[in-house]
Structures are given as C-alpha cells and as structure tokens.
Amino acid sequence: MEKRIVVLGAGESGCGAAVLAKKLGFGVFVSDYGCIAGKYKEMLDKHNIEWEERRHTEELILSAGEIIKSPGIPDEAPIIVKIKEAGIPIISEIEFAGRYTRAKMVCITGSNGKTTTTSLIYHIFREAGLNVGLAGNIGNSLALQVAEGDKDYYIVELSSFQLDNMYEFRANVAVLMNITPDHLDRYGYNMQNYVDAKFRILQNQKPEDAFVYWNDDPIIQKELPKYKHGKLYPFAEEKQNGAAAYTEKEMIVFTEPVPFNMELEELSLTGKHNLYNSMAAGISANVAGIRKETIREALKSFTGVEHRLEKVAKVNGVEYINDSKATNVNSCWYALQSMKTKTVLILGGKDKGNDYSEIEGVVKEKCSGLIFLGADNSKLLDFFGKAGIPIADTHSMQECVEAAYRMAKSGETVLLSPCCASFDLFKSYEDRGRQFKECVCKL
C-alpha cells in the first residue's frame, strides 16, 4: 500500500480526487468542515471511501502522506496551518490528476473571460471530433475524468486558487486573458500576490509549448520578462508586430501557425470582451492543429455560457440580462460597456475588497438606476449614494426584481452584474443567477 492521502473538501474536485486516489490503490480519507451534498456522499460510498462532515478530525488528517485541498479553503484555516506545521505536502486536485494522464493540457486563466473562453475552446475541439474533456472550474473534475477513462486533450479553466497548489503540472497551451484586481481578500490585499498566482500557469512550460495572452494588458507586459514560457502567441485589438490575432477592416486576422481571416459579424458572441475570448480560443485551436474551416464554423455556432450576459426575457419592453458570473468589478465594467440602452444595474453581495471607482464613469454614462442586492449594502450606498442616480436597497432576489420592474422604463435593460461573490444571500453565483431568472419569469 502506498502513502495515505487525505482530501479536504468534498465538492466536485475533492470527490473526484478521492475516487482517482482510491483507484490508484492509495489509502483515502475525505474530510469536510461543512455538510457534504447527497450526490457526493453516494459517490464516496460507492467507491468505499471513508469520509466525515462538519468537522476535521486532526489525528486522521495529520497522519496523511499528502493532502489534496479544495481550492475554496484559505491558507489561514486552522487545519491548514497545522498541516503546514507538520510538514505534510498540500497539493490541488489538478496537480494530483496531472500526474496520471498523458493528455495534452490547454489551460485558461485570467480575471475575466475564463469560463467563456474555456467553453469556446472545448466547443471547437469537440466540433473537430477530438477526444476532449472539460475540467477545472467547469465540467466534471479532472481527477474523475482521468479515473473513468482518459482523454487526449483536456480544456481546463484554472482559478488563482487552483494554481496556488500546483507545482509539477504543465500546461501545453497556457492562456492568460487579463489580470485585474480580484480575490484580494485571499491575497493579503496585495495585488502582486494575486498576479504571481496567475503567472503560475507558465511554470514547467517547455519551448515547444504555447503561451496565448492579451498583448495590451499592462500587468502581463510588465511581468512576462520574469518568466520562462513556451512560444508566444499574443492577441490584440489592433494590428501589432508579432500578434497571432488582431482585428482589421471588420475582420479577425489569425496570423499563425496557419493564417486565416474571419468576418467579425460572423462571430456568435458580441462585445469587445468576447472578441478577445474568440481570438484566444481561435489561436489555441490553431496551435493544436485544428483546421481553419472547423475553427471558423465553431466560432459561428457557439451559443454562450449560462450566467454570462445571458438574455432572460423581455417584459413590458424591458430586456432582463443575467450576468451573475460577474463576481468582480472589471467583469461588470465589460458588461456595462456592451450595453446598447440605458441600464438599471443590480450590484452587491460579498465584497472581496472591491474598488468601485473603476466603474464609476461607465455607471454615470450608462445607468438610469442602481439596485443593491446584499446582506449589507453600506459600502455601495456610501460609494454611489452621491451619484445622483435613483437607488433601491434590497436584501432578497424577489425584492430586487420587483424594484427593477418598478424602476426600468420601456426600451431600457435590467442587468444583474453584481461585482461581488454571492455567498451572503446565495449558495453560489449559479444559484443567484437561477433565482434571478425564476423571479423575472414570474413578472
């Protein structure tokens, strides 16, 4: 019997890691400080994996040879402090799974656009008929897919938290969309710590690998010289020397490895942020050798991502849009920039150290009203209270949607783009988005 593995956190990634560890012959124990969802208890029981909930039994945890930690558990958690004091290695589920697969890894990170870009790349690879899995922050856990039958490619969305506990893992294609302040509450309110976490996507890259990134991001430009990486494939809005994709005369121009063009109006996704997402996805597929015809068709046929600028309904001439996935300020900025009408904006939730001055200008320009939705909206009230825009202060989704219905005029848009995490009133950003859609559909 090999060393004993303890998995902390019994969500999608933790249970997947436990199943893979068990299959590989490790002794496995799963511990969750909260409650474990019924479907995950069933999965653990089916594989005869021991588990506990609502506690961390120290003697069972501190006897591990290695710990696989859920990305949601912060380093300050008492059990993590004790594990570090005991000198037990802590890794992520992705790091663990990466040891046992020979698949090529296409990995996507960035403050905004990760999920759409990841889903778009997966869509292109699937349309090309490749044996491909979707993993990381979306899809099934990488470990579970490796355990149940490996793929040739995995398209993996990686948060900074997942990257924090990755050491040997290698991204054959690394995609970095952008870097703006996010999750600073987890990084000691120090932006450089967050930036360093994002750049971990480049660790272990070899010269034959690829690094796809937004060339106009000032932070990426400043940090890039510090790192070893694969061949560079930058993308930019306007033509630049060395850019692997840029726009010119209403076309996206892809320059390498296989040159081809595509008309902007053929893209299924609209808005500047989606232009960048489409460029990053197109380059990643091009680098993987997928035919240009397939890339073009797939960029035309992609239908988008739930909770990301998702049209819900039109009621009394008012368009309702669910952008619940906008959990940081920059995401909300992109959403507002893409609005073509006056907008009633819904903001609020668990603040992660947000600086709302980034959206102050665009709020004044685009918004006819603001609705705050959170357990405590005092920071929002302080910041936007002097803007001279109508404001409603709400503490439940029903109250919020009713306020939006009263406030928005025909021809306007109601946009849920909260800037904040959802954990004060909701289980997740998905729960928040679904509740929004349910309340809108009852209007």
Q: Give the helix tally.
A: 17
Taken together, the total number of domains comes to 3
> Which descriptor suits the 3D outline?
globular
Q: Largest beta sheet, briefly? A: 9 strands, mixed
CATH homolog superfamily of the largest domain: Mur-like, catalytic domain
What does it look like?
The chain is an alpha/beta fold and 443 residues long. The protein has three domains: 4-91, Rossmann fold, CATH 3.40.50; 95-301, Mur-like, catalytic domain (UDP-N-acetylmuramoyl-L-alanine:D-glutamate ligase); 310-441, Mur ligase, C-terminal domain (Protein-Tyrosine Phosphatase, Chain A, Alpha-Beta Complex), CATH 3.90.190.20. It contains 17 helices and 20 strands. The chain has helices spanning 12-23, 38-46, 58-61, 78-85, 93-98, 114-127, 142-148, 160-164, 191-199, 218-223, 272-287, 292-301, 329-337, 357-366, 378-384, 397-407, 429-441, and strands at residues 4-8, 27-32, 50-53, 66-69, 90-91, 104-109, 132-136, 153-157, 173-176, 210-214, 231-238, 245-248, 251-254, 260-263, 310-315, 318-322, 343-347, 367-373, 391-394, 413-416. The chain has a nine-stranded mixed sheet with strand order 7-8-6-9-10-11-12-13-14. Strands 15-16-20-17-18-19 form a six-stranded mixed sheet. It has a five-stranded parallel sheet with strand order 3-2-1-4-5. Helix 9 links the parallel strand 9 (173-176) and strand 10 (210-214). Helix 11 (272-287) runs antiparallel to helix 12. The radius of gyration is 22 Å and the shape is globular. The chain starts with a strand and ends with a helix.
